[in-house]
């Protein structure tokens, strides 16, 4: 996978979400793996993708770094 080193920089739960989703696992499986409600998976996936995008984006100054929320 192209972003593996970057995914490793994410909080563990967000990395798991991306890895499982990219591997084709259903939201049910992801929810079970993380022991979270099924309804939380889309939000976690979105947060993970946003955080990954920030890691791949050019540095936008200290404000950009401070806006990243760790989960």
Put the structure in a nutshell:
62% of the residues lie in helices and 0% in strands. The protein has 71 residues and is mostly helical.
List key phrases describing it:
71 residues, mainly alpha, Arc Repressor Mutant, subunit A, 5 helices, elongated
Write the SSE topology.
Blueprint: H1 4-7, H2 12-22, H3 27-34, H4 41-56, H5 62-66
Helix pairs in contact: 2-3, 2-4
Description:
- This protein is an all-alpha fold.
- The protein contains five helices and no strands.
- Helix 2 packs antiparallel against helix 3 and helix 2 crosses helix 4.
- The longest helix has 16 residues.
Task: Supply the CATH class.
Answer: Mainly Alpha
Order of helices and strands: HHHHH
CATH architectural designation? Orthogonal Bundle
Count of runs of 4 or more consecutive helical residues: 5
Task: Using the CA coordinates, give the radius of gyration.
Answer: 13 Å
